[in-house]
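Inputs:
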Amino acid sequence: MTFAAGAAHAAEPIKLGVLEDQSGDFALATIGKVHGIQLATDEINAAGGIAGRKLELVIYDTQSDNTRFQEFMRRVLQRDKVDVVFAGFSSASREAYRPIVDQLNGFAFYNNQYEGGVCDAHMMVTGAVPEQQFSTLIPWMMEKFGKRVYTIAADYNFGQISAEWVRNIVKEQGGTMVGEEFIPLGVSQFSSTIQNIQKAKPDILITLLVGAAQSSYYEQAAAANLHVPMGSSVNVGQAYEHKRFKPPSLANMYVTTNWIEEVDDPKSKEFVAKWHAKFPNEPYINQEAENSYLAVYMYKEMVERANGSTKRDDLRAIVAKGDVCVDAPEGKVCMDPKSQHMSHTIYLAKVGDDHSITFPKVWTDIKPYWLGSVGCDLTQKNPNAQYTPSSPPPK
Amino acid sequence: MPNFDAVFGFLYQFGDACAFLVLCASGLAVIFGMMGVINLAHGEFIMCGAYVTVTLAKLGAPLALAILCGALATGAAGIVLERLVIRHLYQRPLDTVVATWGISLIISQGALILLGPSLSDISTPLGSVDIGNLSYSVYRFALMAAAAGLLLALYLLFNLTRFGVLARATIQVPHMAEALGVNTSLIYSLTFGIGAALAGATGGLYAPTMTLVPTMGSQFIMEAFVTVVVGGSDVFLGTAPAGVTLGLVKAAMTTWQGQLAGQIGLLVAVIIVIRILPRGISGLILRERA
């Protein structure tokens, strides 16, 4: 009798809530996240599911609108009663829904590169963070091009906090900041910014511009004949500007990303082939698509090691052992128990004059060390907070 | 010559800001300023012009011809829209807000569904030029010339042609114009079409410098409304001086404290102007002249 009840229970699907922008400003970068989750789910279901249970997706289009994130987050947790939620692109949308996950005691994956610092037991982060992207990129660029650095960044939490990381790393490496400008999100005209950069004559320009309006910068800078080597944590890897923009507007751009379509190794190629077979119209497979794909496998690994339990605390107890890893298209990645962020392979992608991509350098197994090193330890306590280099956890 | 760089740089900023404001606002000045239709789909008209221009340019048409086609296509779309929706709302100006907002959502989301989240770019033509120690995009100078040219053409159209007289008569006192034998419904359609075509031309002109996405219209609409509100109801006495005034404020604030300050300066200037001049700059000029 108990066996029969157990079997009936086992046949029930595991429900995954998916809140991603399929329309609006961010759709370009985030449609791939939904597809990545669908691809992984289909593969897992075809192979028999997780611990004998099929996966079922509950997908909502959040329309690049933070209030939609809040509304749908309540709906998936309270009405749809999903086991886990995969949600969000912009840091603003993550911070909009995160209090709801905490309040309703839910469990969410944020499958996105971001400015770092979220120390929250209800969240798992599979995207790359500044200590992985900037502590590789900036020393490499300073050695190659020189030590005078100028930053232009989107004026909201992502840009401000990322710029702070850039500033700190430049200082650590003995360089100087010759300029820093924060640009409101809707701005699409950059003549004055271009002039300021020309006047400051930097060796390196770090661009942390976000969204379609701000990406007009590159064409305008190229038209004004501004050719400073550029570094970024967001271009190419997210919105494949090298494919969309006419060459050479993105030439001499260097980006650190944990994966993009051009990565040239057998496992990555196999992933790209599977993807295009399922989604032939997808223009490009970006970093966040891979982060979302591997997140489903990461979840599978956790549930299987917890003997089929989908309870958050059981899964976190597994993560706390420190050896939860999966083989992703980028290589082996592991979940860090202190911060619940993930280690990554970091590729340095260089955009050529014809917008072709080469990889001058690859760093393997770069850990998300910062949160743990400043005192975030989710195995001990849960502060539900976001920290920045200038406001670390209280000692 | 650091001083020369600073002065010329500022003049260039000023011209650039001015051209952007005037071109953004030119179509809206006709549709909202003259006709009183609060057109929230103005940004989508601009997007439409940009999309047509880029598509034709990629098919091999010369850019100038592509921009012209973009303007004409948007103008035609505007006439269709006026016939179907807008004409029923001339007596209910507030309802045009809802109708045009709905239209703007349908156009931008429709473009997303039909054409995808992004259209690949065409590059900015004409290259760059070194003046002093700085380099400038030549196309930006072309945009400034286009803004001036467009204003002049509008002035000639509305002041020196028979159509212009009929249009102004129709919009000022429609029943009287009708009684005198003017086909007012045709005039309304054409005037709305001209406004839409101007928006399309703006989209085409800026298309080579920007990233093309279905929501790109939103990058223009705030500046457009701000300029028209400051300018007041007269297209030439309003839009041009409003563009110059706001361009000056924006360029000065941006040069001094960066892009954020430029945006803030623009909005503060608008608040001050409409507090002092509720009917805009053209209201002031016309009152003094009267």
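DSSP finds twelve helices and two strands in chain B. Flag for discussion at group meeting.
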